[in-house]
Design a protein that fits this description.
Shape: globular
CATH class of the largest domain: Alpha Beta
Strand content: 15-25%
CATH architecture of the largest domain: Alpha-Beta Barrel
Number of strands: 26
Bound molecules: alpha-L-arabinofuranose
CATH topology of the largest domain: TIM Barrel
Number of helices: 10
Structural class: alpha/beta
Helix content: 25-40%
Largest sheet: 8 strands, parallel, barrel
Number of domains: 2
C-alpha cells in the first residue's frame, strides 16, 4: 500500500482558526432567498415565512457568518427597497441576473433569519450604481442606536435595537467587466476608501473588506490588489479573494489538484498585502476574506436556457458529485493551512445556488455531497492549526506538478483536549496508509474516524435519493506501539480523524 505521513507538534502553530472561516453566502439570486431560506406557503414555514427544514440544515453546519445580499446583485441594489411596509416595496428589474426582484425579503428580515440560524450577517454595500452616501446611510440605519433620520427610520420599521452588524464588504468583484458599475483599480480604490472612511465615522467598531480580484485568472491580478490597497490601506481591514473550480474536461486528477493553485493564489495575495504594508511603513496586517469559494460549473449550460425576468428562477443549481466534495475538502484544507491570514471565508452559496443545501419548492430539503466536508470542518475544525509536516507520494496532472496524493491538516483544541485531522486521498485507484506522529502530545486515543467515500465519483444526492453519498464511521484508525496513529485512507476519500490528547 502507498504510504503518507504527517508530523504535528503542539508548539508549532500556524494560527488560531477564526471561526468566520466557516462562513457562507446568501445572495438575491435564483432560489437562494425565495424558495431557499424563505417560502411563505411551505408546510414548514414559520410566522415570517422562513423554512424550518432549511433552518435545521443550516444550523447543522454551525455557520458563524453569512454574506448578504450579493454578489453581483448588490451592485445594482437599493437597500431602501427592501425595508419598510411590504406593500410599498417595489418590484425591480434585477440586471445582474436578469430576474424580477420582488423585495419580499430585505435587510431587516435577513437579520431576523440570521438570529434564527444562530449566525451573524456580513453586509455588502453597493459601490456599483451607488456610493458613499448610501453606504453611510445603511450603516446608520443598521448600527446607530436612534435619534437620527436613518436610525429612527429603522425604529419606525419595528427594530428598536440596532442590528450591530460588524463586518461590511465594500462592493463586490468590482474588477469584473460583468459587474454593474465596473471600475478600474484606481476608481475602485478611491471609492472604497471614501465610502469606508465615512462608514467608520458612523460606527468606528465596524470592519471593512475591500474587493480583491474576482479570480486568479483575471488579467489585472495581482496588480489590482496592490493598486486598491495602495489607495485604501488605512481604511480597510481585509481584502477579498474569490475562486470557483470546475471539472469541465472531466479530468478528475487535475480537477482535484486545483486546490494546489488555491494555495498559490492565497500566498500571492498575502504577499501583495504585505508588500503594501511595507510600502506604507504600516503596522496593520491586511487579512484575507475568502468570501466566495466553491465548485461551480454543472449549471453553466442549463442556465443559458432560462427565461429572463421571472422571480426566483432555478439559477446556478449545481448538483454536486462525490468528487466535488473531495475538492471542497481540499479547498477547506488550503484555507486552514493559512489560518494565520485567512480570517473569513464564505462557501458560495448556502441554499440552492451552488450550495450545500438543496430544496424543492413546496417539497423537501436535503444535503448535497459538499455539505459533509463543510460541516465536518465547521463543527470539528476549531482551535489552532498545527504546522503540517507532510510526506506523501505525488503525481503530475495536466496543469499541476508535484500534487500530493494526501492533502491534510491538523487542528488542536486545547479546550476540548482534541486533535482533529482532515485528510483527502486524491488517489482514484488506491488506498493510502497514513501515519500521524503526534510527538509532543505523547500519543492519544482515537475517538472516531469519519469517512466520505463512494464507488462512483459522479454519485450525487437528490430529492429521491438524499443519502446516496453520506459519511460513515470507519474502524480502521489505530494506535501503534510507538504512539503513532495509523489509518487507511480509502481511494478518493475525505477523512476526519478525531484524537483525544
Ligand atoms: O456566487 C455567484 C456569483 O459569483 C456572485 O454573484 C459573484 O460575486 C460571483 O461572480
Amino acid at each position: 500500500m502507498n504510504k503518507a505521513s504527517m508530523i504535528v507538534d503542539k508548539d508549532f502553530v500556524v494560527g488560531k482558526v477564526d471561526e468566520r472561516i466557516y462562513g457562507s453566502f446568501i445572495e438575491h439570486l435564483g432560489r437562494a432567498v425565495y424558495g431557499g431560506i424563505y417560502e411563505s406557503n411551505h408546510p414548514t414555514a414559520d410566522e415570517q415565512g422562513f423554512r424550518a427544514d432549511v433552518l435545521e440544515l443550516v444550523k447543522g453546519l454551525q455557520v458563524p457568518i453569512v454574506r448578504y445580499p450579493g454578489g453581483n446583485f448588490v451592485s445594482g441594489y437599493n437597500w431602501e427597497d427592501g425595508v419598510g411596509p411590504l406593500n410599498e416595496r417595489p418590484r425591480r428589474l434585477e440586471l445582474a441576473w436578469r430576474t424580477i426582484e420582488p423585495n419580499w425579503i430585505g435587510f431587516n428580515e435577513f437579520i431576523d433569519w440570521c438570529k434564527k440560524a444562530n449566525t451573524e450577517a456580513m453586509m455588502a454595500v453597493n459601490l456599483g450604481t451607488r456610493g458613499v452616501d448610501e453606504a453611510r446611510n445603511l450603516v446608520e440605519y443598521s448600527n446607530h442606536p436612534s435619534g437620527s433620520y436613518w436610525s429612527d427610520l429603522r425604529v419606525s420599521h419595528g427594530y428598536k435595537d440596532p442590528h450591530a452588524v460588524k463586518t461590511w464588504c465594500l462592493g463586490n468583484e468590482m474588477d469584473g467587466p460583468w459587474q454593474i458599475g465596473h471600475k478600474t483599480a484606481t476608481e475602485y480604490g478611491r471609492i472604497a476608501n471614501e465610502a469606508g472612511k465615512v462608514m467608520k465615522w458612523v460606527d468606528p467598531t465596524i470592519e471593512l473588506v475591500a474587493c480583491g480580484s474576482s479570480n486568479r485568472g483575471m488579467a489585472t491580478f495581482p496588480e489590482w490588489e496592490a493598486a486598491v490597497l495602495d489607495l485604501a490601506y488605512e481604511t480597510v481591514d481585509y481584502l477579498s479573494i474569490h475562486q470557483y473550480y470546475g471539472n469541465q474536461k472531466n479530468d478528475t486528477p487535475n480537477f482535484l489538484a486545483q486546490s494546489v493553485g488555491m494555495d498559490d493564489y492565497i500566498h500571492t495575495v498575502i504577499s501583495t498585502c504585505d508588500y503594501i504594508q511595507a510600502k506604507k511603513r504600516g503596522k496593520k496586517k491586511i487579512h484575507l476574506s475568502f468570501d466566495e469559494w466553491n465548485v461551480w460549473f454543472h449549471s453553466h449550460e442549463q442556465d443559458k436556457q432560462l427565461e429572463p425576468w421571472t422571480i426566483a428562477p432555478p439559477q446556478l443549481e449545481d448538483i454536486y458529485t462525490h468528487e466535488d466534495a473531495l475538492l471542497v475538502g481540499c479547498m477547506l484544507i488550503s484555507m486552514l493551512k493559512r489560518a494565520d491570514r485567512v480570517k473569513m471565508a464564505c462557501i458560495a452559496q448556502l441554499v440552492n445556488v451552488i450550495a450545500p443545501i438543496m430544496t424543492e419548492n413546496g417539497g423537501s430539503a436535503w444535503k448535497q455531497t459538499i455539505y459533509y466536508p463543510y460541516m465536518h470542518a465547521s463543527v470539528f475544525g476549531r482551535g489552532e492549526v498545527l504546522v503540517p509536516l507532510v510526506k506523501s507520494p505525488k503525481y503530475d496532472s495536466s496543469e499541476f506538478t508535484d500534487v500530493p496524493y494526501v492533502e491534510t491538516v491538523a487542528i488542536h483544541s486545547e479546550e476540548k483536549s482534541e486533535v482533529v485531522v482532515f485528510a483527502v486521498n486524491r488517489h482514484l485507484e488506491e488506498a493510502m496508509l497514513f501515519e500521524i506522529d503526534l510527538r509532543s502530545f505523547g500519543g492519544g486515543r482515537i475517538m472516531e474516524h469519519i469517512v466520505l467515500e463512494h464507488e462512483d465519483l459522479k454519485a450525487t444526492n437528490t430529492a429521491e435519493m438524499p443519502n446516496r453519498v453520506q459519511p460513515h464511521s470507519s474502524g480502521n484508525a489505530a494506535m501503534t506501539q510507538e504512539g503513532k496513529i495509523t489509518a487507511s485512507l480509502g481511494k478518493a476519500s475525505w477523512n476526519v480523524i478525531r484524537i483525544k490528547v
